[in-house]
Amino acid sequence: MKDKILMILLFFLFMAAVPVGFAVGNAKKPLSSPSEKNSSESVAASTAALCREDDSDEFIRAVAVIERTNLLSGANAEAAENNSDEELYKRVERICNESETVLTLDGKAVYIPCFNCSDGYTEASRDHPYLCAVASPWDAYCADRDSEQRCEGVSLNGVRVLTQSGLSAEEALLWYLPGLQAQNESRQNKNDASS
Q: Which pTM value belongs to this model?
């Protein structure tokens, strides 16, 4: 009888350990030091996927900052497929390579969700407390506006309007993300190494 009880207990211990071992073995590792080539290609591809040919260089730079920040935060680990026009992709790639700016909170890159358009304001987030509600009145005139869409983070339409109005990529992004700081990626990597 003792042998049966022992076998049953061992079976349950084994069954309890399998999911834990599976989760640990398959956990995504943070991208604290992605290879430079892969990260720049990933940022360019994901940026190009969100841009149009008529977008300003400053808007493209803003999108690249979001994509680079998300990559460094570990939230955007899979490279986007490049479906853009070759000329647009080359332009995006050039702009992405001109800057290493990332957005940080307390010196660390954080996930920044972005949406095409809000319903006139972005919302605060329970999952990401650094995201607060921000007015985005220019979105009321966006052709793609969806009054049912919940927008936490950055309105790409809003960033497009702000950069066309003369704001820099960083100024436009910090409109939507007032609690974050813009800093050079190489400085951010040094902060990660010292943590």
A: 0.73
Note every long-range contact of 83-90, with CB atoms under 8 Å and residues 24 or more positions apart, other chains counting. 83/49, 84/48, 84/49, 84/51, 85/53, 87/53, 88/48, 88/51, 88/52, 88/53, 89/44, 89/45, 89/48
Q: 81 lies in which domain range?
A: 36-194
Looking at the domain assignment, is residue 7 inside a domain? Answer: no
Q: How many CB atoms lie within 10 A of CB 190?
A: 11
Residue 189 forms part of a structural domain: yes
pLDDT digit string, tens, across residues 153-182: 999 999 999 999 999 999 999 999 999 999
What is the count of structural domains for the chain? 1
Whether 191 has a pLDDT exceeding 90, the answer reads: no
How do residues 106-118 score in pLDDT, each as one tens digit?
A: 999 999 999 999 8
